[in-house]
Amino acid sequence: MSASRSSPDSTLTLDDARIAAQLVTLRDCLRWATSEFHVGRLHFGHGTASAWDEAVALVLGALHLPWDVDPAVLDGRLLDVERARIVALVRARIETRKPLPYLLGEAFFAGHPFVVDERVLIPRSPIAELIEHDFAAWFPDQPPARVLDLCTGSGCIGIATALHLPTAEVDLADISPDALAVAKINITRHEVGTRVRAVASDLFERLAGQRYDLIVVNPPYVDARDLTGMPAEFRHEPSLALGAGEDGLDIVRRLLREARSHLEDDGVLIVEVGNSDRHLEAAYPEVPFLWLEFERGGHGVFALTAAELDEYAAHFA
After folding, report:
1. Residue among 154, 13, 9 at smallest CA distance from 90
2. Ranges assigned E (strand) in the chain
């Protein structure tokens, strides 16, 4: 029989069904998946950094097991349906180049799970570290009372902030109705609806009169050159959430002009611009952007206080 035909009891090809039958333990699946990912020459950048890490994420995710599972589980025997699920996911990851969180329907950010699909960017911002430290560098004595997560996507930054700062009120704003639909699912999932709301807004357009202690933004910032050269995995993400003009600063320029009127006088603006950091410094050479450093890696995130936005307002105008 041809290997392209499906076996009668699953969506696997006959060859893959034979492979699944030989993957007795979870450890077997990890080794096989890692090998397949190396052969498939995948790109890793949506929560993992290597074929092994991707295999671990896929196998544990497929079996609904936590990251800190007891290592003794590795040698446990799998059910037929579990082996079939893992093999099918590995094949889908290789053949479609779809990022793993989309295949699993879930991504972790700042220690919390979030529903994700192709309506939103996959959470991976280094801003997670700032959330885990309660933004203490700017609010050492009292946490911010009002927070805005602008260009929110799945809502991961704002919702994680609300979970880490139980007294904060948080607005999630995005121009995309599809993204806000996912954000609302995550608001419900984490039961933060009394303190977190989703707002349809083109940046600050529908936030007139609203002022915040902290505005955090992970906007579209990929420049035209980087957008063209992105691996296939990134093409599954919404283009609206990635590209931002020739130098990647179309949205950021508006932010720098408009943010001050929505910040309290002692407030802080934190923005991720990734590889477009060089374009930002070239565009505003006089502005002393504070570039943040992260223990787990990541770059291109700056902070400006309300006072600094006032001082350099002429440059942003």
Report:
1. 13
2. 106-109, 112-115, 146-150, 169-174, 196-200, 212-217, 263-272, 290-291, 301-305
Distance from C-alpha of 8 to C-alpha of 26, rounded to nearest angstrom: 24
| Residues 6 or more apart whose Cβ sits within 8 Å of residue 267 | 144, 211, 212, 213, 214, 215, 305, 306
What backbone phi and psi angles, to 5 degrees, belong to 201? -155, 135
| Tokens matching residue 121 | 């960017």
158 phi and psi, to 5 degrees? -70, -40
- Closest by CA position to 214, among listed 256, 166, 176, 271: 271
**Three-state DSSP class for residue 35:** helix
- Alpha-carbon span 254 to 257, nearest angstrom: 5
Question: Alpha-carbon distance 151 to 241, whole Å?
Answer: 8
* Cβ 144 vs Cβ 168: under 8 Å: yes
Question: Tell me: the pLDDT tens digits for 253-262?
Answer: 999 999 999 9
- Residues 274 and 302 sit within 8 Å (Cβ to Cβ): no
What pTM was estimated for this model as a whole? Answer: 0.91
What are the structure tokens assigned to 215, written together? 């505005």
In angstroms, rounded to a whole number, what is the distance separating the alpha carbons of residues 290 and 38? 39
Cα distance from N-terminal residue to C-terminal residue, the chain: 69
Topology of the domain covering 119-316 = Rossmann fold (3.40.50)
Residue 63: C-alpha distances to residues 92, 195, 245 (Å): 16, 33, 41
Tens digits of residue pLDDT in 11-34 = 788 988 999 999 999 999 999 999
Q: Where in the chain is the domain with CATH 3.40.50.150?
A: 119-316
Angle (deg, nearest 10), helices 80-96 and 51-62: 140
Handedness of CA 261, 241, 100, 294 (dihedral sign): negative
Among 96, 74, 103, 81, smallest CA distance to 21 is for 81
pLDDT digits 0-9 by tens, 219-234:
988 888 888 888 888 8
